[in-house]
Amino acid sequence: MQNTGLSVKNLSVFYGEKEAVKSVSLEFSPRQVTALIGPSGCGKSTFLRSLNRMNDTIGGVKTTGEIWIDGHNINDSGVDVVLLRQQIGMVWQRPNPFHKSIYENIAFGPRYHGIRSKRELDGIVEDCLRRAALWEETKDRLHKSALALSGGQQQRLCIARSIAVKPKIILMDEPASALDPVSTAKIEELISELKKEYCIIIVTHNMHQAARVSDRTAFFYMGKLIETGETDQIFTNPVEKSTDDYISGRFG
Amino acid sequence: MSAKTANRVATAVIVLVAAFIVLLLAGLLGYIIFRGLGHISLDFLTSAPETIKAGGGIGPQLFNSLFLLVLTLIITIPLGLGAGIYMSQYAKPGRLTDSIRLVVEVLSSFPSIVVGLFGLLVIVNLFGFGFSLFSGALALTVFNLPLMVRITEQALAGVPREQKEASLALGLSRWKTITSVMMPISMPAIVTGTILASGRVFGEAAALLFTAGMSSPRLDFTDWNPLSPFSPLNPFRPAETLAVHIWKVNSEGLAPDAAEIAAGASAVLVIMVLLFNFTARWFGRVLYRKFTATK
């Protein structure tokens, strides 16, 4: 059981002169799924990517504000980004398994972090694949290329890969938007399962998905956090008019 | 003219141009190989050249070309990989990076005779390496290094960003990400590019005239001690390559069969370059299959 959440204070992200995220403050609780919604270009993905400092890898991005996890400010220049990223897993919009075998995709991270024993690695691989509901489908071809899996399987493999290094928080950037309805359902099921242990933050364009999987919802518009609250409340009784307009499909 | 006619005319012109180029190339290749093939024999490929008698071979020159290639690669691959990795993964875009890139481009478009003379003045005379394989390899590095850098840089830039991010997100260091995730994906492109770039080593003559020299000592192919002056493996001995030999035989050859020797050697050179290119393509495909486990 993890008891780590994430606390964001006055986070702003600049692409050169353009302010893509404008002074956002937001709390994320452990064992909860928070959905970030909003029209394209509203800054929600940029916000998500700043939580594990993935924006650092792109030139010309400046981030200000504080992101607190376990009493450490992620944006502090003294923070070891490499260590930090181990605590915060990430899943992308398009499945991006490594061009390696299914086994290697999972074992790669833990091995780098110091687990050498084959038995232990075998255990991690099986455990992670089971938790991603992928074990039955892959146990006979663990050493075949991960690229031969279907899109939905690849995405579940990516989720299994991210939990293999024991993160506390998992960031998901539209994890099901490139998948068919059946695979999407499986991913959503998996998210509900994973939230028993992790703090999950998910960006989604799919209102139904946000309503189905999340406990809390945050609505972004033009780089600003407009409104946040319990998902039920946001979807049935939003305070702000623009939230209501977006959710009911009047724009976006 | 209607759009349909314009389309037909354009298609016809393009097909004609393509056919012309293919014919030109096929004609050139056919001519060189047809003229030279009759002269190629095992004896021609293995025996030493004769100065004034007929019947000399190109054995040492063939060996020199291959050995020079290996030496050049030993120098260029580490340097090129290192610089390419730096340029694509570590260098921040800015004036310094731009100027490095500019220098690299200029380097690759240097006239080879200028590089040869520079090599003569600096490597051969100033540094005192003399006419040697090593001097030749350094001169060739001037051409191959820019290619190597660009090939590596582009191959790494071609790796999908999500692959890199996925590795970083697992808490892996940048270096580990480059070596374990990005390099395997870009390896086929790097290997193919390297082999194609090194094909140039075979054809280069002007830069080698004044660096590797125009003569070979009497090589003793039983002596494999790299320090012995007559050993084929000694990198500090003068070494005439095949391309230089063709040039020399053509311009000042005294042997009565000079024309035939030049024709035969040219055919050998062309066949080697072709073989090299085909091998590169095949090898690149094999590597791609191996690394991505696609059948």
Main beta sheet of chain A: strand number and arrangement?
6 strands, mixed
What class, by secondary structure content of chain A? alpha/beta
**Percentage of helical residues of chain B?**
over 70%
Spans of chain A of at least 5 consecutive residues whose pLDDT stays below 50 are none
Largest sheet of chain B: none
Keywords:
heterodimer; A: 252 residues; alpha/beta; Rossmann fold; six-stranded mixed sheet; four-stranded antiparallel sheet; 10 strands; 36% helix; B: 295 residues; mainly alpha; MetI-like fold; 11 helices; 0% strand; globular; ATP-binding (chain A); Phosphate ABC transporter ATP-binding protein PstB (chain A); nucleotide-binding (chain A)
Commentary on this structure:
The complex is a heterodimer of chains A (252) and B (295). The mean pLDDT of chain A is 88. In chain A, helix 6 runs parallel beside helix 7. Helices cover 36% and strands 25% of the residues of chain A. Chain A is globular and about 55 Å long. Chain A is α/β, with parallel strands linked by helices. In chain A, the strands form two sheets. Chain A has a six-stranded mixed beta sheet, sandwiched between helices. A four-stranded antiparallel beta sheet of chain A has the order 2-1-4-5, covered by helices on one side. In chain A, a hairpin with a 2-residue loop joins strand 4 and strand 5. Chain A has a domain of 176 residues: Rossmann fold (3-Layer(aba) Sandwich), CATH 3.40.50.300. Chain B is an all-alpha fold. Chain B has one domain: MetI-like (MetI-like fold), CATH 1.10.3720.10. Helices cover 73% and strands 0% of the residues of chain B. Chain B is built from eleven helices and no strands. In chain B, helix 6 packs across helix 8 and helix 8 packs antiparallel against helix 11. The longest helix of chain B has 35 residues. The N and C termini of chain B lie far apart (49 Å). At the A-B interface, helix 2, strand 6, helix 3 and helix 6 of A face helix 7 and helix 8 of B.
